[in-house]
Amino acid sequence: MSGLDIVARGMGVAAQAAMPRLFADLEGAALPRTLLRVDTVGHTTSGLGAAVYVNDALCDAALAAKHPRFVFTAADGRVFRLLPDFGSVSVEQGGAAGDGVANDQPAVQATIDYVEAIDAREVVFSMPRYAIWATVRTSPRASRFELDGRPIVVTKTISLRGASADRSVLDFRGLGGVDPETNWQVVPDSEGSSTNAVWRGGGIFLFGNMTEPEDGEALNIERFEMCRLVLQGNRERTGNSNTTASLVTGDGWDTSDKGISIHDTWVGDLVISDCEVHGFKGELFFIAGADARSLHAERLHLHTTNGNAWNAGTNIRITADNCEFGNALIAHEDTGKTFARYTNCVWRDASTATLGSGPTNGILYNYLYPTRDETESAPMTQLEGCVFKNIGQLLVGCWTRGSIRTIDTQVYFSTPLYSALRDIDIEIEAWMDQRGNFSPVSIGGPANLTTQVSGAPAGTYQVPPRNMRIYVRTLRTAVAKAAGREWIAATWTGYVEPTCRIIVEGEANKAPYAINPVSMPKFDLRDYNSTHVSAGAFNVAHSLGWIDQNLTVVPSAVHMGYYQSAGTAPRDVTVATEPAAGYQYGFAHGQKIRFYAFTNGPGIRFVKGTAGLRLSQTRTLVNKKDWIEFTFDKYDGRAWEESGFFSSADPV
Asked: Is 4 helix (H, G, I), strand (E, B) or coil?
C-alpha cells in the first residue's frame, strides 16, 4: 500500500467520522483526534432534534454523567456536549417525540436541567403537543421543598418558549399516562402523619432561593420567562372546592395540583406572554410565602379549576395586559401590592374575586390587614378598561383605583374582610344581563366599633371605611329587561364614615339605603330612575312605613317616603342631624335627602324654626307624590336646609 493510499484511507475515515449521524450512535464512537465538532441529523430519529456537539472547556466526565441526553463520550475518552443555538436548546434535542402520545416528561426536564447547568438562555418546544406524564411522589403532600412528584421543575434563570404555529401544548397526564381526573397518587399528608392525601403534582414548579439573598446577591432565578405555551391539566372544574381533595373520588380543591407554582422561595422577574393554563384542581397561578421582584403577564388565559385562577399573593410589582382569569371558585385572590396595573383584563365565571388591600409593608395581624409605608407614595392597584363578568362578589380592598365594567357582578367593599378600608377611587359601569335582584355596589362597615381584628392583640378593632369615592352607573341589557330582572339599590351597612362618597347614576328598584342604619356615607343621585312600578311615582323612594304620630327621622336612604294614617291633624316631623352612630359617621356636607308622601292624608309637616331644620316656611306634604328635599349643612350650625319642595295641595 502506497503512502498516498494511506493518506487517502485516513482522509476517508475522518470524513466518515465527521458525517452527520444520530446522537444515539455517538456514545463510544471513534472520532479523529482533530475533530472538535460533530453535527447530528437527530437525537434518536433523523430529522428530530438535530444539533451540533463540541468538545470545549465545559466538557468533563461530571457533565457527561449528569446530562447523558446532551453529552457523549467518544472512544478516545473525549467528552462532547450539545452547543446551544444562540442560547437555545430544543426539547427534541433531548429526545422528546412531540407527538402528544409518548411520555416527553423525562426529555423536557432533562433539557431544562441541561440549559440550567451550562447557563444557556432558552428551552424551545418546537412541536404542537407534548405528553407530560406525572412522576412518582414519595414525600408528604405538605413538604413544599421536595421536588419529587413535580412534572417540571425550574431552579435557575431560564426561558420556556413554544415554537409551534399555534402555540405548543404541554399535556399533563397521570402516572403511566392515565387520565389525571380519575387517577392520582396517595401520599402521607405531612411528615410523620398517619393521614394520607391526594397528590397530582401540578404543572411547572419554580424553586428559588430558600433564604432571602443579601443586598447585591444574585438570585438563582433572576428571571423566568414563558411564552406561547399551553399548560393543559386535563382536570375538570366540578364545583367541589373542599380544600382537602377526596381520597375516594379525587375531587375537591387539590392543593398539590397548581398550574404554575412558587412557594416560600425568592425569585426575580417573571414574564409570561401569550400563554394559557387550564384544567388543574388547584391554583392555576400561585405565588405565596416569599417575594418575587416583578410579574408581567400579557395575553395570559387562566381558566378551569376548583380553586383559584390567579393568586399572585405576595407584594410583587404587577403589570397585566389583555389577560383573562376565570371558570374557578375564585377568579383572583390578592393581597396588597406596592404597584399593580391591570389593563384590558377580564375576570369571569367565579364565586368571588379579591383586589387590592392586604399588607405592603409586611404582615401585621393577618395576611389581608392593610399596612403601608406612609413615608412613601400610597400603594395602588390600577384598573384600566377591565371587565368582571358573572363574578358573584368582587371584593375591593384599599388603594384600588380606576375604571371597570361589571356584568352580573356585585362590587362589595368589605370591612369584615379587610379590617380598615380606605383610599379607594373607582368608576363602575354595571350591567345586568343573566342575573337579577342584587345590588351593583354594597359597602359593609363593622357592625360596631369593638369588632376585633383577626390575629391582632385584644382591643385592636376594625375601622369603619373612609376616604372612598365610588361612581356607579347601572344599566340592563334588553335580555334582562325582557326577563323582568331589576337592580336592587346600592346599599350600606354598619359604621361608615361620611368621607366615603358614592355617586349613583342609572336605574334600580329603589334609592340607595342602609340595611341596618347606624351611619350614612355621602350619596349623590344623578339621572337616577325607577324600574319598579310602585316606586316610579316616588322617584324610587324607600318606604319608612306608616306615619301616625309626631316623630324624628334618622335618614337611612337618599329618598324616603311615608304612608299617611287617617286623621285630621298633620304629623310633625323633624330630621336628626346625626345618625345613631354619632356625628363622626354622618352626615356629609351637601348630602341631599328627599321625603315623599306615599298617600293622601292629614299631612306630614316640617315646621319652620324646628331645631336642625332650616325652612323658608312651614311645609306640609298632604297629597300623594308631594315631596320636600333637604341639603345638609355641616359647617354652619349642622342643619338640614330646604332645597326643594313640591305640593299639589292648595296653599293654606
From this structure: helix
pLDDT interval class at 19 (50, 70, 90): low
Q: Which residues pair with 301 in a beta bridge?
A: 276, 324
The span from the CA of 580 to the CA of 617, in Å, is 28
SS3 assignment for 459-490: CCECEEEEEEEEEEEEEECHHHHHCCCCCCCC
- Tell me, what amino acid is at 495? Y
**What's the CA gap between 169 and 151, in Å, rounded?**
14
Alpha-carbon distance of 103 to 229, in angstroms, equals 18
Angle at 19 between CA 15 and CA 22, to 5 degrees: 150
What is the sign, positive or negative, of the torsion defined by CA atoms of 269, 129, 274, 254? Answer: negative
Calpha distance 500→516 (Å, rounded): 17
3-state secondary structure of 444: strand
Residue with cell 425550574: 154
Instruction: Give 617-620's long-range contacts (Cβ < 8 A, gap of 24+).
Output: 619/645, 619/647, 620/570, 620/647, 620/649, 620/652
Which residues touch 239 (CB under 8 Å, ≥6 apart)? 306
| CA dist., res. 111 & res. 371, Å (int) | 43
Q: Quick one: CA dihedral 95, 98, 103, 108, positive or negative?
A: positive
Instruction: Kindly report, residue by residue over 490-536, the tens digit of the pLDDT.
Output: 999 999 999 999 999 999 988 999 998 999 999 999 999 888 766 66
Residue 366 burial (C-beta neighbours within 10 Å; 0-12, 13-18, 19+)? middle
Q: What is the DSSP string of 527-560?
A: EEEE-SHHHHTTTTPEEEEEE-S-EEE---BSEE
Phi then psi dihedrals of residue 484, to 5 deg:
75, 20
**Cα(603)–Cα(606) distance, rounded to whole angstroms?**
10
Q: Looking at residues 11-25, what average pLDDT do you find?
A: 68
For 8, the grid coordinates are 487517502
Instruction: Using pLDDT thresholds of 50, 70 and 90, give the confidence band for residue 5.
Output: low
Going along 96-203, which residue ranges are E strands? 99-103, 122-125, 129-133, 152-154, 158-162, 168-173, 185-188, 196-199
